[in-house]
TrEMBL record:
GO terms for molecular function: arabinose-5-phosphate isomerase activity; carbohydrate derivative binding; metal ion binding. Pfam families: CBS (PF00571), SIS (PF01380). The keyword Transcription regulation does not apply. This is KpsF/GutQ family sugar-phosphate isomerase. One of its GO terms (biological process) is carbohydrate derivative metabolic process. Belongs to the SIS family. GutQ/KpsF subfamily.
Length: 318
């Protein structure tokens, strides 16, 4: 197959799946809202289940829900029939996936949900199927062609399942008022975890702060800059409030007669600052946009820390 042929096939597949996603979006009904509210109101977990490719998608949906504030787990339908049904409690909600809705492996889980009045959300393309008939809420997938029409391998259908699972997770996220700080609790590792750390986690504080009074001589300011090694010094007033900042750029602009000046005469007034509760990602955005390498961290108007771009680099934010 030539490169041109491969690109043509790829575009055809993506076009088929994109059309199916648009159809799914247009067909979304009140059943979706009911599913979200049922999960939101549940005291237990969302138990996701499915066989084959639908099972892989169910695992993914469970992981997405769990990482966005909704307790969830995956139970394999075959294992459920051999004891794992005991993992499903009366306060749980079952989310069962099957395109045809006729998989024999799901039968015991469906019967268990009915027996113990556990809410069952069915995600299927066939409303008249055993799964569709058993569901208390039916999320109906459009009857869209698979991208591999000749062999009918699950492609479009699993894309629709994943997208609908994402829609449920995001709707629940917004319903709960789930924030980036909440998200950070479940993602402490990797670059994503680093981006979700706060400025307060990464900043230098206390004795590391390069601070000097406004009336201090510039010779003293240079000593502080050299000692603290941040390439900047903060200027504070008598009440300890940050009123200015001296950087290498300020030194160059006042090179002529620099040592005859006081810090307050050289400083840049009203410097850009950030709060300790801000995310590291926000600090990085500010530094990139303003083309600066250091930010003072303030609580109110008082400096409580300093953050250098190298701190973000060491933490894996960059």
């Amino acid at each position: 197959m030539t490169a041109f042929d491969a690109v043509t096939v790829g575009r055809r597949v993506l076009a088929i799946e994109a059309d199916a996603l648009r159809t799914l979006s247009d067909s979304l009904s009140e059943a979706f809202a009911q599913a979200v509210e049922t999960i939101f109101d549940a005291k237990g977990r969302v138990v996701c289940t499915g066989m084959g490719k639908s099972g892989h998608v169910a695992r993914k949906i469970a992981a997405t829900l769990a990482s966005t504030g909704t307790q969830a787990m995956f139970v394999h339908p075959a294992e459920a029939s051999h004891g794992d049904l005991g993992m499903i409690g009366p306060d749980d909600v079952v989310l069962a996936l099957s395109k045809s809705g006729a998989g024999r492996e799901l039968a015991d889980t469906l019967a268990y949900a009915k027996r113990f009045s556990i809410p069952l959300i069915a995600m299927t393309a066939v409303a008249e199927s055993p799964l569709g008939q058993a569901g208390d809420i039916v999320l109906l997938l459009p009857d869209a062609p698979e991208a591999t029409a000749e062999v009918n391998a699950p492609t479009t259908s699993t894309t629709l399942q994943i997208a609908l699972g994402d829609a449920i997770a995001v709707a629940l996220l917004e319903r709960r008022g789930f924030t980036a700080s909440d998200f950070r609790v479940f993602h402490p590792g990797g670059r994503l975890g680093a981006m979700l750390r706060t400025v307060g986690d990464l900043m230098h504080g206390d004795d590391e702060l390069p601070l000097i009074a406004a009336d201090a001589a510039m010779s003293d300011a240079l000593l502080v800059m050299s000692e603290k090694r941040f390439g900047a010094v903060g200027v504070v007033d008598g009440a300890g409030r940050l009123t200015g900042l001296i950087t290498d750029g300020d030194l160059r602009r006042h090179m002529d007669g620099l040592l005859t000046h006081a810090a307050g005469e050289v400083m840049t007034h009203a410097p850009l600052t950030i709060g300790p509760g801000a995310l590291a990602a926000e600090a990085l955005k500010v530094m990139n946009e303003r083309r600066i390498t250091v930010l003072f961290v303030v609580d109110g108007e008082r400096p409580v820390g300093i953050l250098h771009v190298h701190d973000l680099l060491r933490a894996g934010v960059i």
